[in-house]
Amino acid sequence: MVGNGWDRVPIDSQSIDAPLSRAAVFLTLTVGEGREALQAVAGVLDGLDDLIKTVGFRDLNGRLSCITALGSGLWDRFQTSKRPQELRPFVPIEGAKHTAPATPGDLFFHIRAEREDLCFEFERLLLDQLGSSVALADEVAGFRYFDSRDLLGFVDGTANPTGHDIGASTLVGSEDPEFAGGSYVVVQKYLHQMQPWAGLSKGEQEQIIGREIVSNVELPDAASGQKSHKTLATIVDDDGTEHDILRDNMPFGRPGHGEYGTYFIGYSRHLWVTQKMLERMFLGDPPGMHDRLLDFSTAHTGAVFFAPAPRTLSALVQAVQT
Ligand code: HEM
Which of 49, 115, 204, 239 fits a disulfide with 200 by CB distance 3.0 to 4.6 angstroms? Predict the structure, then answer.
């Protein structure tokens, strides 16, 4: 699932380490009741590699990729006795001031490319094939904003793992051998309150995020009291080991509608790591001192999926079709 750098054709499925793209579509669907809908979905997933080639081959420089991930409820419907160890629905978090809600989602597609039209065309054909077996839960088209900035103005994604660390942080390993090579996916759609944010000084904004806005240089962690977003999202276990996730957040928006957002997507080897980040952000550390980013950003969706390795996905969908 993590490429070896020898790929002759730079279009791929289930490649979590696909490079940061200029455009992305985050598509969340629910699957209709009954075996017929399930079988129809399985049939489409079985042919997904071909669909990626059909669209992606039209411009190889466009580097089209798609990751397919399944929610906990859908996994159960596949009636396989084996499940990824940590897979479960999104657990809502109720902080004193802010809430991370859980919203529906059986199937999730993370479509990435250097060109918006490739993402669009792939999504169009995919939805055409899925037809009435699915219903739309959420659809967001994201774009790269200058030097990978979010709409609050900060460079987003800097502390992501790189190189060999990507696989170690994102792919399930020998701890769950049946599902090795797969990855837990957590998504949340945030909308920003731009005016109050713009009312802060540059220094206040930088303290909230934990980095300098222009240079992107990290600020020191607070010794006590209110911690920055960057510090709250850093997870160190009792052994002193830091646990990373891979984020591929993208801005989205419609200025005419006053909509300015960040689509958060985190891939991780262990679901508990992303969960812990969310708890530290929404409940605070120390408790009560929540992430101040949330005073200017509201989570409107929340869902958990598992993106299986290609061979696991194809075994799963073939079993349903027979
Ligand atoms: C760091 C923005 C939500 C996890 C950062 C940084 C920015 C940022 C600007 C600093 C640069 C970087 O390292 O990427 C945002 C925005 C969010 C959001 C705008 C939504 C409104 C989340 C959520 C999580 C998360 C929901 C986890 C559940 C992280 C992590 C880091 C980080 C792990 C790196 C920490 C480190 O320095 O090690 N985020 N973030 N972020 N964020 Fe977020």
Answer: 204
